[in-house]
Amino acid sequence: MKTHFPHPLPRLMLAGCVLLLGASLQAQTLRPSNRPLGLPNAGAVPTQRIAQSGPLPADFIVVVVNSEPITNNELRLRVLRAEQQLTQQGVAIPPRNELASRMIDLMINERAQLQVARETGVRVDEGMIDQAMQTVAQQNQITVDVLRRRLQADGLSLQQFRNDLRDQLLLSRLREREVESRTRITDQEADQFIREQQTAGSTVIELNLAQILVAVPEKANEAQVTALRARAQRVLERAQKGDDFTALSAEFSDAPDKRQGGQLGLRPADRYPDLFTEAVRSVAVGGIAGPVRSGAGFHVLKVLEKKQSSTVGDTVLQTRARHILMRPTPTMNEAAVRARLAQMRQQVREGKADFAALAKEFSADGSAASGGDLGWANPGQFVPEFEAAMETLAPGQIAEPVTSRFGVHLIQVVERRQAKLTQSQQRELARAALREKKQDEAYTQWAQEVRGRAYVEFREAPL
User: Fold this and answer.
1) What is the spatial distance between Cα 38 and Cα 263, in angstroms, rounded to a whole number?
2) Helix 334-349 to helix 355-362 angle, to the nearest 10 degrees?
3) Contact 41/165 with Cβ under 8 angstroms?
4) What is the pLDDT of residue 342?
5) 408 vs 156, higher pLDDT
6) I need a surface site. Which of 12, 111, 224, 269 has the fewest CB within 10 A?
7) What number is the average pLDDT over the span 249-258?
């Protein structure tokens, strides 16, 4: 498979998306990768100033991670933000000392992983941060300008917000790279998966589960494991009595998906870990199961949906799109590029210009000669920013300018069709399904290893 893009475009696999290779373009292969593990805390914008419970005390070091300190004021601010988010979600706030303990643990993990990112040369440029800001604004259904004004009104520094986004993007890219290396799927495994799908018949069971994870540290002793098992059991009993599962997840879960109520998404049952599917096999929709022990800890599970669907077939919905790629230059910054592409978009929509003609004249991509045409593409072929924008368009529609690591794109969907998969494409689909199944466990194991290698010295108790 070939593409007009000047470099291979690694694909971050989104949950539930299929990863396929296929359309005949004209340059290097697009190599899809694993799904992103998320940008923690990036999706929420404060709606009120964080209340300060008195003046800030004289700062001091609470804990040192390798040679990097975490201060009391850093921790205090994280706790205040967490309390605000829980209040906005209508979730009971745990005791301050318990919440502080959780935040310290989270910050230690983040700090250790950020150090690994810097040491191994992971980089995030300003364009990626700009795109992340746009994503945050879209998630909150506001513009970037409104986001900036809201941050200012809330007393939050725009630069600090961008620094936070940079850290979260660094963590995401590092996790992507590390988890991908641990979830290699062989052709034999993929072929076996396809045979099992064919043997299973024309339908499969799809599950949508929510989880509450009580994490168990890698080197936990027997007493710690017992205490954590008891905690998971108490959570299970509260869920079985009818306590709101989303609230319980926000309060007790150690999983990254806690802010989404622990929802793992609707997917074929074989894309969940076997221990999950076994635990909920006889559980009805709305039922609770667990605690289930995995390498990550103890899981309490809720069945949100169960339904039958068609198996992965031999056809896929393909999209034919075209784009105009422009890159910022010393004389034309990214804002100016976006404004120029927005102007082109308006001209095409008003019938004053032709998209293909504009692509031939202005696009910096190899597809310019063919009017920006990228040919027929399977799901999962392009980088996430490009793919996400393309998926929202009906044939004929043009997206707002989209920034990726390659520049700024103006994207138009030309048409869509159902296409028959080749044997190699079916294998890639099977490989993606198996990879997704292994990712959560691989991430947890990697995170524990990073934490285990870090030198952590606790200094003074936080105030």
Assistant:
1) 14
2) 150
3) no
4) 92
5) 408
6) 224
7) 78
Can you tell me the distance from the alpha carbon of 65 to that of 451, in angstroms, rounded to the nearest whole number? 10
CATH topology of domain 315-420: Chitinase A; domain 3 (3.10.50)
Residue range 375-406, pLDDT digits in tens = 998 877 887 778 878 877 888 889 888 888 78
The string of pLDDT tens digits covering residues 42-90 is 444 444 444 444 455 578 999 999 989 999 999 998 888 888 777 765 6
Please list, residue by residue across 370-379, b when 16 or more beta carbons sit within 10 angstroms of its beta carbon and e when fewer do. bbbbbbbbbb
State how far the Cα of 434 lies from the Cα of 437, in Å rounded to an integer.
5
Distance CA 396, CA 276 (A): 43
* CA-based nearest residue to 461, from 174, 76, 28, 31: 76
Angle, alpha carbons 450-452-458 (nearest 5°): 110
Token pair of 382 as six digits: 């392009």
Contact in structure between 68 and 97 (CB atoms under 8 Å): no
Q: What is the pLDDT of residue 395?
A: 86
Q: H or E stretch including 136?
A: helix 126-139
Residue 183 pLDDT grade (very low, low, confident, very high; cuts 50, 70, 90): confident
Which among 189, 239, 196, 273 has a CA at the least distance from the CA of 441? 273
Cα angle, residue 416 at apex, residues 414 and 417 outer, rounded to 5°: 145
Mean pLDDT for all residues in the chain: 77
- Torsion, Cα 388 389 394 396, to 10 degrees, reads -150
Global pTM value: 0.47
What element of type H or E holds 288? strand 288-293
Task: Say if 61-182 and 315-420 have the same CATH topology.
Answer: no
Closest CA to 310 of 463, 197, 174, 186: 197
Q: Does domain 61-182 have CATH number 1.10.4030.10?
A: yes
Spell out the domain ranges in the chain.
61-182, 203-310, 315-420
Helix 423-453 to helix 96-119 angle (10° resolution) is 110
For residues 433 and 419, give the distance between their C-alpha atoms in angstroms, rounded to a whole number.
Answer: 19
pLDDT over 60 (residue 35): no
The torsion angles phi and psi of 26, rounded to 5 degrees, stand at -150, 30
Token pair, residue 297, equals 């800890």
Architecture (CATH level 2) of domain 203-310: Roll (3.10)
Residue 30 is classified by DSSP as P
What is the token pair recorded at 405? 């690591």
The residue count for the chain: 463
